[in-house]
Amino acid sequence: MKSQLEQLKQAAIDALKTVTDNESLERLRVEILGRKGKMAELMKQMATLADEERKLVGAAANEVKGAIEAAFAEKAEMAEGAERAERLSREWIDVTEPAIGVRSGIGNLHPVTQVREDLEDLFASMGFIVADGPELESEYFNFTALNIPPTHPARDMQDTFYIEGHPDMVMRTHTSPVQIRSMKKYGVPLRAIVPGRCFRNEATDVRHEHTFHQLEGVVIDKGITLSHMKGVLETVAKHLYGADTQIRLRPKFYPFVEPGVNGEVTCFLCKGVGCRLCKKSGWLEVFGAGMIHPNVLREGGVDPDVYSGFAFGFGLTRLVMLKYGIDDIRHLEGGDLRFLKQF
Ligand SMILES: [Zn+2]
């Protein structure tokens, strides 16, 4: 009887080795451990044994049954693991693949980038270099070096973001600090433009945004006058809005130029007649400019008795809004693809 039990145990273990899937495993389990299985068959025979022997054989039978059950459990676990591995290899997902129904296609440049690159090409053709500067700027370069001392009211007009723990650093409020940086880096004569992002602490609305783009220009050489400036600005205006575009310069105060001017171009929509875009005036305000203040030249290491120069700044964001008829500045930094895909 005992040897029969041992035989059954060995047969079960051998049979388990050949099993490869859950289905045949279950069939084998019923065959051996089922209610009418081989184990039950042996147990039934035990009833015919004498009391003493039945005790001994019963203990052995329980042991064998336990061993077979354990072997089955182990095999079941293995089969499940193998099945899971097989399923995973079949259901492998490429998480970088675009979602079904979404066609990424080829993107397009942001409208600000398009206008910026167009102007960079224009200025490069006139011998300007394209300079760059940090967006996190020292208070010195952003204000003090540009003739805006700490107590100057112009600082109030350009409320910006200060950096906690670094009271001398600001997010630059304009691209003008790169005027000084360019003078120090490249010396004179100098012809440079500086396109870039600027920041102001604004309550945002359709016309105000905390982040916007400017395009700064600076020209320094011996004998540079206001008429050189007008010539360059007129070239830019005609490039942007057509050959019949005129410009007019009206005095305006900027701390870093003297004299300073507010530059307007004839409205490209109504050609100067007056419309909704230009508020019936026929003119659009698109830039600020002026002859660089002697103090600013000195800060850049340039002798104002020998050299003179002019500087100008376009609101690049404003140019884009005018060009495409965008009525809300917040679209430009909003990152909404429905907006951006239109350009
Ligand atoms: Zn108009």
Explain what this protein looks like in three dimensions.
The protein starts with a helix and ends with a helix. The chain has 2 domains: 2-90; 111-340, BirA Bifunctional Protein, domain 2, CATH 3.30.930. It has helices at 2-18, 22-33, 38-46, 51-90, 111-125, 139-142, 154-157, 177-186, 226-241, 294-299, 316-324, 331-334, 337-340, and strands at residues 129-130, 136-138, 162-163, 166-171, 190-199, 211-221, 247-251, 257-266, 283-292, 308-315. The longest helix is centred in the first third of the chain and has 40 residues, at 51-90. The strands form 2 sheets. Strands 1-5-6-10-9-8-7 form a 7-stranded mixed β-sheet, with helices on both faces. Strands 2-4-3 form a 3-stranded antiparallel β-sheet. It contains 13 helices and 10 strands. The protein has 343 residues and is of the alpha+beta class. Bound molecules: zinc ion. Zinc ion binds next to loops.
How is this fold's topology laid out?
Layout: H1 2-18, H2 22-33, H3 38-46, H4 51-90, H5 111-125, E1 129-130, E2 136-138, H6 139-142, H7 154-157, E3 162-163, E4 166-171, H8 177-186, E5 190-199, E6 211-221, H9 226-241, E7 247-251, E8 257-266, E9 283-292, H10 294-299, E10 308-315, H11 316-324, H12 331-334, H13 337-340
Helix pairs in contact: 1-4, 2-4, 5-11
